[in-house]
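Action item from last week, closing it out:
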Amino acid sequence: NAIIAAYARHGQGKEALQVFEQMQMKGIISDKFTFVSLLSACAGQANLVEGKRVHTCILDCEFEFDVALGNALVNM
């Protein structure tokens, strides 16, 4: 999560998404913090396609409503 957040914070959204892909391939479970950072990375790149993919992953995880996650979705 820290690596994804750092990439997103420094405008390196592509790298953040690559780390997320690696996490998924290794079976590491993502949490709300992961998705907030990923949505920030997508927003920073204006990458709606990846943002929609991340949103689908969020829906698949069936998280309860979270203000930070909701705000990240709106910002995207």
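Closing note: Residues 32-45 form the longest helix (14 residues).
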